[in-house]
Design a protein that fits this description.
Elements: H1 6-19, H2 29-43, E1 68-70, E2 74-75, E3 82-83, E4 87-91, E5 116-118, E6 125-127, H3 130-133, E7 141-143, E8 148-152, H4 155-159, E9 166-168, E10 173-176, H5 180-184, E11 191-193, E12 198-201, H6 205-209, E13 216-218, E14 223-226, H7 230-233, E15 241-243, E16 248-251, H8 255-258, E17 266-268, E18 273-277, H9 280-284, E19 291-293, E20 298-301, E21 315-317, E22 322-326, E23 339-341, E24 346-349, E25 363-365, E26 370-371, E27 387-389, E28 411-413, E29 420-422, E30 435-437, E31 442-444, E32 459-461, E33 468-469, E34 483-485, E35 490-493, H10 497-500, E36 507-509, E37 514-517, H11 522-526, E38 532-534, E39 539-542, H12 547-551, E40 557-559, E41 564-568, E42 581-583, E43 588-591, E44 605-607, E45 612-615, E46 629-631, E47 636-640, E48 651-653, E49 658-662, E50 675-677, E51 682-685, E52 699-701, E53 706-710, E54 723-725, E55 730-733, H13 737-741, H14 744-747, E56 760-762, E57 786-788, E58 793-797, E59 800-804, E60 814-816, E61 821-825, E62 838-840, E63 845-849, E64 862-864, E65 869-872, E66 886-888, ...
Parallel strand pairs: 4-5, 5-7, 6-8, 7-9, 8-10, 9-11, 10-12, 11-13, 12-14, 13-15, 14-16, 15-17, 16-18, 17-19, 18-20, 19-21, 20-22, 21-23, 22-24, 23-25, 24-26, 25-27, 27-28, 28-30, 29-31, 30-32, 32-34, 33-35, 34-36, 35-37, 36-38, 37-39, 38-40, 39-41, 40-42, 41-43, 42-44, 43-45, 44-46, 45-47, ...
Antiparallel strand pairs: 1-4, 2-3, 56-57, 58-59
């Protein structure tokens, strides 16, 4: 590949410019040669380039070439000679020669007569040539949009283009700040588009203050920060179109200056961090406004009434802010509105009846607020409604009968309210309805109702709607369905064959029903778009078909928990390359785990717990894989404790198996572990010091193994521990004082420790870029969300085994050293662990008195000191333990009176004090 030398190009064009004569009725020869050299430079890179075939040396007049515009020759009054034609316009968009370097433009910079240069849609790479561009001082129109241009906007070159009227650099990779100096010289500029770049820094007030003729300004989709400059924008009184959306602009809107923009028709400030109230004075002056988008900012307060005086407004989006108060009746003044979105705010009270005056409304979104009362009974009068979204409020009453008049309705979202009554059959008579969401209400389904739908639904959610019997047969007519949610009903019978053959199904939610039988193999052969299959909590059985993973290349979530599936797991699970969540827990699967599971580098959550899986050869994951939650508990795995997991794993549950041997030293490499469960195995040996290197551990459960030796002092370095269970082992020695003093995670509960939930909501679809890039926890897709359960943590809690819900596991602080052979006295410093809710030291050989400082455990609910050799009285200060509900001091050598008062009066069971001879 030969790259043109821009220096040689410059020399050659000096020759043509000064020496070659120009014909009066054709373009100057030097301009013709400039164009030919430009074409030649492209051919040097793309030898098959044919777009500019008309550009050739045999054609004497380049004014006749494609994509070239010349001026008309004109007569002179003085000597009857004519002014020759010159090239004034080059429309070079869509040349079909991608990735051309920007220095190929060099020949064009000698055509100083150019007034229009359009080089858009060419994927040209490199920087804008500042020096050459500055030669084109006659340019009126410059379009370099939709290329791969990078670097900064050249202030020097740009500043020479004082005649420029239109400048479009959008859809590139430009970075750096907007050059105030260069921009300020473009006083004739009418249209400026710098959108879809990576420009940063603040908007230059001085530069924009000179652009008095500017009509169209688009700086959207950049990384611009800082505030909107008051000084500069106040001068742009001719602006008609202003788009600053999708940046990082903060601060408040300059109200007075915005009030000067009285010609604005289009204003978009969405997806920034602008705060404060919407300025009443400024927006009241924008009397010509047709389009207003302030969504996804941080505006607060109420909507200023002046906003409802904008009589030409057709589009209003204030969604995803912090606006509050009631929706005013004045909203009915906006009679030309076609689209209105106030969703995801804090509006309360009812929907104003004046909204029915908005007869031109096509889209209405009031979802995700705190709106109450009933849906306006005459909402059907909004006959142009195409999209109606009222979900996630507190609306009551039934679905208004007047909705039957909404003949154009395409999308209806009523989910997450307090609606009552039967689901109306006429909802399925809308000819154009495609999206119907009714879940999360108190609506009921009439199972005797015969439905003959006229609609062709794409998405349907009737979750928790009282459906009974087989999956309704009428759904078989909805072959365009891509999303179906019938979960949390009373459906039974098999997974229907007709549903398995739907060609466009991507999301199936049928969990929490009573479906039975095996899965039809056609489901995975006929649904190549299948992404989520959630069938948990049913009675499905049989083995999994191997076609499941081979045919479903887009499968990202497979949840089959709480069923009766059996047999071995298919070897080809790894064929589902983009699988992110795999939940097979609480079934009857047996045999080894297929090694192909570990080949899926995008897998994030894996739950195979509570099956009959076995084997002593474990999975070997790529250390850099995305897996962060893995549960293999309650199976029949054996051998040494495996450690071949990704380095980023956070939760690892291996309890309830047959693992043996010592705790492996290389567990320390899993430094991101927060929850490690190895309870109910046959692990032996001493607790290794290497555990202390897993500094993020919050839960460590080694209960019911064969560990021996003393509790290492270094275990106290696990300062984030909230739950530590070493019960039912063979540990000896005393409770080390260092162990107590450094457990800072148990000393003080963090403020608002009400649950950093370990359950998770997954919204999933493959992002536009390569799957797995960016966040490994969430993947955006509007209106596709579902919850998946994470196993509860089983502990000895208040004399019985109980599960701590993963919804609020961070609320619990537990220390269980029971059923060991610990001796010596109870350390008084245990009283410093004030966050503890449960302390169990029972069934050891502890002696001495019960420390008075245990009364400092102000949050303790359960305290078990039974079956030891403790003596002396029960401390009277225990009456201060206001949260205490269980106290067991039985089977010791305690004496004296049982304290009276406070919570001690509620602990009256004599068994809790039994077998203390002097008590």
């Amino acid at each position: 590949m030969v790259m043109a030398n821009p220096n040689l190009l410059l020399q050659s064009f000096f020759f043509f410019f000064f020496l070659l004569p120009c014909g009066s009725w054709s373009c100057p020869e030097y301009q013709k040669q400039a164009l030919l050299q430009f074409k030649s430079s492209i051919l040097a890179i793309h030898s098959s380039f044919q777009t500019l075939d008309s550009w050739n040396s045999s054609s004497s007049n380049c004014c006749l070439w494609d994509k070239v515009t010349c001026s008309s020759p004109s007569n002179s009054n003085s000597n009857s000679t004519s002014t020759p034609s010159v090239v004034i316009g080059l429309n070079l968009s869509y040349l079909s020669a991608p990735l051309m370097p920007s220095n190929l433009l060099a020949p064009l910079f000698f055509i100083r007569s150019l007034r229009v240069l359009d080089f858009s849609h060419n994927f040209m790479k490199g920087q804008i040539p500042a020096l050459g561009l500055g030669n084109l001082s006659n340019l009126v129109h410059l379009d370099l949009s939709r290329n791969f241009m990078k670097g900064e906007i050249p202030a020097l070159g740009l500043g020479n283009l004082s005649n420029l009227v239109q400048l479009d650099l959008s859809w590139n990779f430009m970075k750096g700040q907007i050059p105030a100096l260069g921009l300020g010289n473009l006083s004739n500029l009418v249209h400026l588009d710098l959108s879809w770049n990576s420009i940063n820094g603040q908007i230059p007030a001085l530069g924009f203050g000179n652009l008095l003729n500017l009509v169209h300004l688009d700086l959207s989709r950049n990384s611009i920060n800082g505030q909107i400059p008051a000084l500069g924008f106040g001068n742009l009184s001719n602006l008609v179109h202003l788009d600053l959306s999708r940046n990082s602009i903060n601060g408040q809107i300059p109200a007075l200056e915005f009030g000067n923009l009285s010609n604005l028709v289009y204003l978009d400030l969405s997806r920034n961090s602008i705060n404060g109230q919407i300025p009443a004075l400024g927006f009241g002056n924008l009397s010509n406004l047709v389009h207003l988008d302030l969504s996804q900012n941080r505006f607060n307060g109420s909507i200023p009434l002046q906003l409802f005086q904008l009589k030409y407004l057709q589009y209003l989006d204030l969604s995803s802010n912090r606006l509050s108060g009631e929706l005013p009746e004045e909203i009915g003044n906006l009679t030309k509105l076609q689209q209105l979105s106030l969703s995801s705010n804090k509006f309360s009270n009812g929907i104003p009846s004046s909204i029915l005056h908005l007869r031109e409304l096509e889209e209405l979104d009031l979802s995700d607020n705190a709106l109450s009362m009933e849906i306006p009974s005459d909402i059907g009068n909004l006959s142009n409604l195409f999209y109606l979204r009222l979900g996630k409020n507190k609306l009551t009453g039934g679905v208004p009968a007047s909705m039957q008049k909404l003949n154009k309705l395409n999308s209806l979202y009523l989910e997450g309210n307090l609606l009552t009554g039967e689901i109306p059959f006429w909802l399925f008579d809308f000819k154009y309805l495609q999206y119907l969401y009714l879940q999360g209400n108190n609506l009921t389904w009439n199972n005797n109702m015969k439905i003959e739908p006229k609609c062709r639904l794409s998405r349907l959610s009737l979750r928790s709607s009282g459906l009974q019997g087989d999956i309704p047969e009428w759904i078989s007519t909805q072959t365009n369905l891509s999303y179906l949610d019938l979960s949390m009903n009373q459906l039974h019978g098999p997974f229907p064959q007709w549903l398995a053959e739907f060609p466009f199904l991507s999301y199936i939610f049928l969990s929490h029903n009573k479906l039975s039988g095996s899965l039809p193999t056609a489901l995975f052969q006929s649904s190549p778009l299948l992404s989520i299959l959630a069938l948990s909590h049913n009675k499905l059985s049989g083995s999994l078909p191997t076609t499941l993973f081979r045919s479903s290349q887009l499968l990202s979530i497979l949840a089959l928990s709480h069923n009766n599936f059996s047999g071995e797991l298919p070897e080809n699970i790894g064929d589902a390359k983009f699988l992110k969540i795999l939940m097979f827990d609480r079934n009857n699967f047996s045999g080894p785990i297929p090694q192909s599971i570990s080949q899926n580098s995008y897998l994030q959550i894996l739950d195979l717990s509570r099956n009959r899986l076995s084997g002593n050869i474990f999975l070997v994951f790529d250390p850099q894989a995305y897996l962060w939650y893995a549960d293999f508990s309650s199976n029949q795995f054996s051998g040494e404790v495996p450690t071949t997991f990704p380095l980023g794993i956070e939760t690892l549950a291996l309890g309830g198996n047959k693992f043996s041997g010592a705790l492996p030293l290389n567990l320390k490499k899993l430094r991101n572990l927060e929850r490690l469960e190895l309870q109910d195995n046959n692990i032996s040996g001493e607790l290794p010091n290497s555990l202390l290197q897993i500094s993020h551990l919050r839960v460590l459960n080694l209960r019911n193994n064969s560990l021996q030796g003393s509790i290492p002092k270094t275990l106290s370095n696990l300062q984030n521990l909230r739950i530590l269970d070493l019960s039912s082992n063979n540990l000896t020695g005393e409770i080390p004082i260092e162990f107590v003093n450094n457990l800072t995670g148990m000393i003080e509960a963090p403020p608002n420790s009400t649950s950093q939930t370990l359950d998770f909501v997954v919204v999933t679809e493959f992002p536009s870029q390569t799957p797995g890039f960016g966040s490994v926890r969430a993947f955006p897709l509007q209106n596709v969300s579902t919850e998946f359960e994470v196993k509860e943590l089983i502990v000895n809690w208040k004399k019985s085994k109980q599960g701590l819900s993963s919804h609020n596991i961070d609320m619990y602080f537990l220390l269980d050293l029971s059923n060991n052979q610990l001796s010596s006295e109870i350390q008084a410093s245990l009283g410093a662990l004030k966050a503890l809710k449960m302390l169990n030291l029972s069934n050891n050989k502890l002696s001495g008195k019960i420390p008075e400082h245990l009364s400092d455990l102000q949050n303790v609910e359960g305290l078990d000191l039974s079956h030891n050799k403790l003596s002396g009285p029960i401390p009277t200060a225990f009456t201060k333990l206001q949260q205490l509900t269980t106290l067991d001091v039985s089977n010791n050598k305690l004496t004296g009176r049982i304290p009276v008062g406070g919570q001690m009066n509620t602990i009256a069971d004599p068994n809790f004090y039994a077998n203390n001879s002097g008590l």
